[in-house]
Amino acid sequence: MIPRVPRLSSLWVRGTSASSAGATPAVGDGGGPSPSESPTGRTSVQTSRVWRGGVGSARAGSLLAGAVRITAWIGRSHAPWSASGSWVRETAREAIMKKPRAAVGSRCRKRASSQEGREKCARSSTQAKPSAPNGLARRQEEVELQASVSPYHLFRDTAEVTVFRESLLSWYDREKRDLPWRRQAEGEVDPDRRAYAVWVSEVMLQQTQVATVINYYTRWMQKWPTLQDLASASLEEVNQLWAGLGYYSRGRRLLQGARKVVEELGGHMPRTAETLQQLLPGVGRYTAGAIASIAFGQATGVVDGNVVRVLCRVRAIGADPSSTLVSQQLWSLAQQLVDPTRPGDFNQAAMDLGATVCTPQRPLCSQCPLQSLCRARQRVEREQLSASQSLPGSADVEECAPTTGQCQLCTPPTEPWDQSLGVANFPRKASRKSLREECSATCVLEQPRALGGARILLVQRPNSGLLAGLWEFPSVTMEPSEQCQRKALLQELQNWAGPLPATRLQHLGQVVHIFSHIKLIYQVYGLALEGQTPVTDTPPGARWLTREEFHTAAVSTAMKKGSRRATPSSRKKPSPGQQVLDSLFRPHIRTDTPSLKIAAQ
Q1: Which of 272-286, 472-486, 575-589 has the lowest mean pLDDT?
Q2: Selection from 133, 131, 106 nearest residue 120 by Cα
Q3: In terms of pLDDT, which residue wins out, 235 or 590?
């Protein structure tokens, strides 16, 4: 006879909800499940988080423990009725969610004196906490994802995980790169200063090569060695130091984040990946995980471009890594693999391996500490063997054989194996999005005879949008005809510098600059104010700068395009417009001949 479990559990849940708070039994008592994870699929910590808003959190533990025991009893005695265990979990969840939440203000007042309290109050004031049903939905998605993935792409064997960790960390101890932010973090005993040092480096390294970042990082830390120093800086100072590094919103968000830590969090950095991501502007999942693991030792995995490449090759993941499903799986693998005793070193080791050994092209597989675990390498060897024996290439059908349909982590059948690429067949290259093309007319307005040397006019961009707050030559959006374009540009110049001689406005050529999502074409004009009274007064948002000042101003790379060195594959003569900008970056030699006149000849 089947026990009427739903009725029993329903009565028990209602009884527990109505009972007075008592001692919370340990979830693992009586030979039951361990405290870390119960058969209900929810840890005691997770349950207490859900219950936190109500009164009597001990009841939550009692409720969870009872659900565990009922579920375990069902599993032992009535295995075919495992669905009843799910029903118990849902009933328990509903009872928990019915508990009223205390007012946010009262909780904040009680916790305001502690670091944890400041973080929790800041979270509650800036972002509503996700409801339990959303959390259950995410867990359900993870379960469905795991069910749809072949074990071939996973680490099912604990021994494999151990070998992965030990091999990678041993290699890192021998081969790790000597970088200024690593020295700074390793030698810093103050956790907030250590986290700040890591934060600055991780933000600078986004979409930027290590070699480029080193000098910027060194100058930044010399100028603003602490969060408090940065918080007192101006946006103009930050933009000036950041100029040339690209993606300028990163510097602005660093400044905003430092001010928030100092003004709202008592000068203390959030201590976990979760709170770092929630509280600091511009800090996403990767940056939060990097700071938490390196600075605070939290065992949380990270996934950046280098880690994506390593994981996709080690587990032969050929599907698009930018897709939601594959991205979730990569994060899951990173979390499974991260070493709990050395999480910061492990994450940096994985990134170093991808940057120096498991590179996009021509990877150094013979030097890889993970080659014995690498399914991409195994695939290459099988393909080479098949080719030498004149046999048709075979996919990994025997290892990766989902019960139904195409494996969602395998390379699509439409993309055959390329023998010449080897392990570089993984990961799949994402299709590039076409750049949006925009055109702009800009003018280098110069006063050759100004007191103290020639000066050029720069104006400040708006505080939001592309290149926010940076300085540039006066510019306007391109007009359909050159005549309209010249008229619009002259009007813009006069708004900043007063009446100007229209006849001297010369078209010098064009300069092209590629942003991450925009191809911007500048039509460059020049106008030299000769024989006129020097302009000294300018409205707010405009400056007359010498060439030396121009070098150190917060000017975007697009305006400094002429400083770029020509590559051997690009030897053609630069356009006249390019030459004008080139002249502004050559060492200044005093001459009585205006530079714009030289460039125009």
Answers
A1: 575-589
A2: 106
A3: 235
Question: How large is the average pLDDT for residues 124-128?
Answer: 50
Distance of CA 265 to the CA centre of its chain: 23
pLDDT one-digit tens code per residue, 290-323: 999 999 999 999 999 999 999 999 999 999 999 9
Residue in this structure with the two tokens 């046999």, named with its chain if needed: 391
| Overall pTM > 0.70 | no
Could you give the 3-state DSSP secondary structure of residue 296? helix
Q: Which amino acid is it at 69?
A: R
Most confident option among 340-349, 446-455, 499-508: 340-349
Give the confidence band of 399 by pLDDT, cuts at 50, 70, 90.
low
Q: Which of 483, 510, 482, 503 is nearest to 577 (CA)?
A: 510
Q: What is the spatial distance between Cα 384 and Cα 392, in angstroms, rounded to a whole number?
A: 11
Rounded mean pLDDT of 359-366? 96
d(CA 428, CA 409): 10
Residue with tokens 């509280």: 279
The residue among 169, 506, 195, 495 whose CA lies nearest residue 350 is 169
Q: Both tokens of residue 155? A: 């680490």
Distance (Å, whole) CA 464 – CA 289: 28
Closest CA to 227 of 186, 259, 201: 259
Alpha carbon distance 341, 479 (integer Å): 61
Question: What is the crossing angle of helices 343-356 and 305-314, to 10°?
Answer: 80
Active site residues: 202
Q: Decide if 33 contacts 27 (C-beta within 8 A).
A: yes
Neighbours of 273 (CB within 10 A): 24
C-alpha 582/C-alpha 137 separation (Å) is 57
User: Residue 439: in which H helix or E strand, if any?
Assistant: strand 436-447
Distance CA 597, CA 223 (A): 39
